[in-house]
Amino acid sequence: MSENPHPMALPAPETPLTRIDQALLLSGVEASRKSPRGRIIRPLHKQGGDLLQRMLNTLQPGSYIRPHRHADHRAESIVVLAGSIRYFAFDDAGEVAETFVLAAGADEVGIDTDGGIWHSFAALEADTVVFEVKPGPYDAATDKEFARWAPEENSPEADAYLARLVVG
Length: 168
Hints:
Number of strands: 10
Order of helices and strands: HEEEEEEEEEEH
Shape: globular
Oligomer: single chain
């Protein structure tokens, strides 16, 4: 079996204790620069069935994360470790309800959100790294509900939609 040349995620560390150091961040940065999606996930949890999902999400400007929401009982927290993002919360009609910038070393570095909130974020700087935490277990079929009012990833409309969001 051949290795996927464009994975969506890097392998999880095999050790029970993982240092989140500059070398680990740099490996994600390098992979995100090569990814056609402009981003890569480095899971820190060992299996999709783990009850706490922890990951580093490394992204480049222009990477489109389709607006989505998690089930009401599935909260999510993110903290920007490097770079900066513009975070968006949407109402049910797809209008931006709140937007703000989160940046490493700034006054606002992260967000904790209850489940059921439509959201997305976009990198404002190259090599942005976000630490994410949410409950598991992970099931791709039920992890998130994508907003029908937002373009699909890789659709012709996605780049223009993202540009409108970021410019505000």
